[in-house]
Task: structure prediction
Amino acid sequence: MINNGESGFSVRQKLNTALEEIDRLTEILDDPQPWLDTVTALLADTTLTYTAGQTGTVTMGQYIMTRAEGFSYSVAASGASDHHITTAGGVKLYALSGDVRAFGAVGDGVTNDADALIDALGTGREVIIPETSFISLSAGQVQTFIENLNLVSPKQITEFLLPAGDHAITQQVELTNPDARNIVIKGDVRAQVSLTAAVSVGGGPRAHSIRCTLSDASDVEVDDYLYIGYTSGTGVFNAVEGVWKVTAKSGSDVTVKNTINAAWPTMTASGGRVVPLKTILRWPVSQRGLAISGCQLRTLENLVLASQFDITSGSPVDSYSDGLQVGTASDQLNTGSFESQQTNGGEIWCKNVGIVEWEGNGVQTLGGNAYFSQAAACSNGWRGFQAARTGTVACKACIASGNGASGFEAEAMGFTNADDGVAVGNWQQGVFVIGAASVSFIDGFSLLNQNVGLDARNYGTILADGAKVDGNVLRGINSIAGNVLFGAGATASNNGTGVGISVDVNTSEGGIVNGNGASSLGIIQTSTTTSSVVIDTDGEQIWGNGLFVETRSTGAKNAIRNTSIADLVIQSDVSGSGTYLDLLRIKGNDGTFFPDQDGVPNLGRASERWDTVFATTGTINTSDETEKQDIRAATDAEMQVAQAIKSSFKMFRFKDAVAQKGDGARLHFGVIAQDVKAAFEAEGLDPERYGIFCSNTWWVGADGNVHDEPSGGLTEVTRLGVRYEELLAFVVAAI
Result:
C-alpha cells in the first residue's frame, strides 16, 4: 500500500517490488508446479521430495504455491544453507513473498513469529507483518532486527519484544520507513521499585560510586542500568537522579557509577522511583546510533541506547556520534547552519529510556520531534537533550546530568520543554539556549554545573518560573543578549563560588533577566556596553531588595534601585570569615546616606581623598556638652600659638592644580601645616595633642598600591593637614 506523504524513493521502491512479484507470478503460472492448500500444509508436507521418480519429486528452481494465501516459493538445492523454510519431508524452499507468514509465521497473536521475521529479513526485501502478530526476539536476533528496521512493515501497531542483555549493534540505523509508525520496540519489563537511601562510597567527579538502597533489588544485576528519578530528601538529593550503570550489588544495596562533574554534595535521599533497565542496545564508540528521518517511530520503551564513550577518562567533544537523532542525519557540527543542511522531519516517542555514553549528543532533533516520559540522557560527551533548526524535544520531568557540555539545550529556533527537569553536574551549562531558540524549564533544577545554571544568548529565551539554580561554579544565570524569565517562586543562590566571586545573576550586551515574582535573585553583576536589565522580585527595574550589584558598564546608564522603603545596605566580609557586616546604608524613603556604625568609618583617607564637595550647607560637628570632658579655657602658651598662627596666613597655589591647569590654577588663602606645627613647638607644646593639626603616614609600593603598614621595598609617605573649623575658632579666641 502506498501512503500519502511518502517520499518518491519509497514509492518507487514499492512499485519495483510489486513489478518483480508480477513477473514471478507470470512465470509460475506459465509453468506447471505443485500447489498446496496453506503454508501450514506446506510445512507439514512429506510428499515433496528431491528423490527422482517419485510422485512429489521436485527440482531446484521449480515453483510451489499455496492456494489460501497465494504465496509462492522456489525450490532450493538440497545442499543449500541460505533457504528460508524446510518442509517436513526435507525440501528446502526460498519464499518469494514479503509476507512474514510465507516464512512460517502464524499471525494469531499467541504464537511467537520471531523466527519467521528474521528469516524474512534475510531476503533484504520489505517484510509485511500481519495484524495479529506476536514477536518476541531472542538475544541472537536483536541485531538483525534493529539493523533492518527499514524493511519491517507492520499493518497495525505491533510490539516487538527485546530480551534482557547487552546487544551489540554494529552500524548506524538511519530509519526512513513510513511503516515505522506502527513499530513499538519494548525492552525487558521489570517492576518499578523505590529508592530508600543513597550515599557516596567512593570515586570522585565523573566517577562517583553511589550505593543505593532499594525496596526490592531482586530484579537488578551487575551491568544493568537503573533509571532513578522523582527523588525526595534533603540537600542536593537530585544528584542521584539519572540512568546509571550498576557496578555492584549486595542484598538490597546496589552501587551505580554516577558521572556528575562535581564533588558529591551534602544530601540525603529518602525516596524516589527506580526502574531496572535490562535491555541495552550498544553501538561502537564514534558511531552514530539511531537516526530517524522523514518518518515516525512509534515507541521505544524500557531500554537503553548506549555507546562505549567513557566520560571518566575522555574529554568533552562535539562529535557526530549522537545516540538518537531525529529530523535528518547531520554530517556537520554547526547545527545552526541553515544554508548547509536540510531538515527532513521525523518523530519518536520514548518511555523509560536511557541514552548514555555517546561521544556526541545523547538526543538531538534537527527539524524533527522527540517526546520523552521518564527518561534520562547522562554520561554523554556533549549535550544531553538538544533541539535545533525548528526541532522539538519534549522531555518534561526528564534528567540530563553528568554530560560533557550542557544538560538541556535549544539552538537555531529549536524548542526544548524541560519543565520539572533535572540538570546536575554537567561540564558546562545546566540549561543553554542560543540563536532565537527557547527552553521551558519551569520548576526545574539546575545544580552544580561547572559553568552556568541557566545560560541564554543571542535572542534565546529560557522560561524558568519556579526553578532552583544553586551551586553552579561560574554563575547561576547568564543572559548575553538573551532573555531569562525567572519568577513565581524561583531561587538563585550559592553560585559562582568556583571563581572566587559569587554571581547568581549576570546580564550583558542587552540581556534581560526578569525576576518578577522570584523568591530570590541572589547576587547580581552586569558587564555591558549597552543597556542590560534585571527586573527584581517586585517587578521593578533595575534591581531589588537586599541585592549587591556590581556594574561594569561604559556608555550606558547604570542604576541601583531599592523598590521598597527599606534601607539599601552595603556589606563586607571584613574578617574573611564568611560573615558579612553592614557598613553603609542609603535610607529607603529619602536617600539619606549614612554609616551603619556611628562615628566609626571615614569619608576618604589621607592617601585617597575626595576632591570638591558640593553642598547647600556646611558640615555639622558634634558640640554637645554631654559628650565632652576636660573642658577649660586656653592657656597663655596656647594663646601665643594662636597669635602666631594668625600672623602666618598666606596666599598659595596647589602644585597638582598647577601641573594640570598651568597659569589657570587658582590662588588659595590659608595656613601652612608646617607653620602651625612650628608655632606649637615654639611654645613647648606637642602639636599632635591638638585636633587642629593632622599628620598621616602610609607606604606605597612600586605598583602604586597603598599599604597601611611598613614593609620591605615600600616608600614612606607623610602628609600634614589642619582642621580649619577648629583652627579658625582657635585664632578667633586670640583676637
In short: Residues 565-598 form one domain.
